[in-house]
Amino acid sequence: MIRDLNVAKRTEDIGFYAGFVGASFMFGRCLTSTAWGIAADRIGRKPVVVFGIFSVVVFNTLFGLSVSYWMAIATRFLLGALNGLLGPIKAYAIEVCRPEHEALALSLVSTAWGIGLIIGPALGGYLAMPAENFPNVFSPDSFFGRFPYFLPCLCTSVFAVVVLISCIWMPETLHKHKGSENENQSIEGLEAHLIDPKEKVEESGSLNTKKSLFKNWPLMSSIIVYCIFSFHDMAYTEVFSLWAESDKKYGGLSFSSEDVGQVLAVTGASLLVYQLFLYPRINKILGPINSSRIAAILCIPILFAYPYMTYLSEPGLSIILNIASVIKNNLSVTIITGTFILQNNAVPQDQRGAANGLSMTGQSLFKAVAPAGAGIVFSWAQKRQHGFFFPGDQMVFFLLNVIELLGFILTFKPFLAVPEQYSRN
């Protein structure tokens, strides 16, 4: 799309400009996520979720109709700013389930996000430029010929309309925390496993004022770890498609958009199976912290192997790449789900929306920087194919591993403080 908008003067510069389009969505979300989280605590989860889905329908459609680089930037920014969906959904997932099902509930949230990151690019790969890929169905003079990237956006928007209609049957889970002293004590009993004992009840028996989220170090430390790994995942997502589609003379795989879409579709299917059937068992045995640490360590050798796949030929290349992509993305979702669990157990219910909104603000800031930074580094790396230290794309994957290692280190004490029920980890 960046190529066809004629903003990049050279092929090597496409990654640079593509990164800023990805960053604009996250920058918009960074500015408003905390406000959306506070709104979800005050007016309910459902209204915020419904408005967020509606914004997807409108601005995702407009993105597909972009006729200039700056229109693409603007529509993605507005989509991010007006979509406060993910924070309230994480709070909703915890509230709609019994405590023993929290891991499964939050794993479904991270799975949905992960599958979206996979299926979205896959749809783009299959459905972009339909007049070129399906000339018997779409003529160059048709609407889809004049707007070659509208079809995948339209499919996403239609799906969002279906989801928006289904929200009619979505029950509200927010408790207003209003009522008599006895009712407050009843709520306290339900949330006893989530609230610091020092904050539960004063000597008089009434609920004490909850401490500031910024002073809640179990929450803040888990958010920071979450942001580091989110930065890594977003940078990896940006790099993967650029690397796979770039020419072999630049260290890429020379894949077509359809080839990349197929790899991402297989990965998306594996995420659903893994999160539904394997992750809850892994979390039950290892806990969210140890499972995240193991996943982070296993990601490092996989990423180191990526640049050397250029020496493989078909069909071995496609098989190895599919396996590596499946393992890498499932390990990443393991880490993200673990941080979700820690964050939502670090605060009481009436602070969950704000806590998740704060988490989304930090995550969005990091994810705004990640695609732009990844695009810049990728373009720079392609120009140093004969460098002495990690030449070409080897440097890109080396830097991704440095970030992964940093996140792994931060999962240990004294940095990471955890809710009492996970303190044994």
TrEMBL record:
It is found in: Membrane. SUPFAM superfamilies: MFS general substrate transporter. It is a multi-pass membrane protein. The keyword Transport applies. InterPro entries: MFS, MFS_dom, MFS_trans_sf. Pfam families: MFS_1 (PF07690). It comes from the Eukaryota. This is Major facilitator superfamily (MFS) profile domain-containing protein. Residues 1-419 form the Major facilitator superfamily (MFS) profile domain. The chain crosses the membrane at residues 14-36, 48-71, 106-129, 149-170, 219-243, 263-282, 294-313, 319-343, 364-382, 394-416. GO terms for cellular component: membrane. Its main location: membrane. Gene3D superfamilies: MFS general substrate transporter like domains. Keywords: Membrane, Transmembrane, Transmembrane helix, Transport.
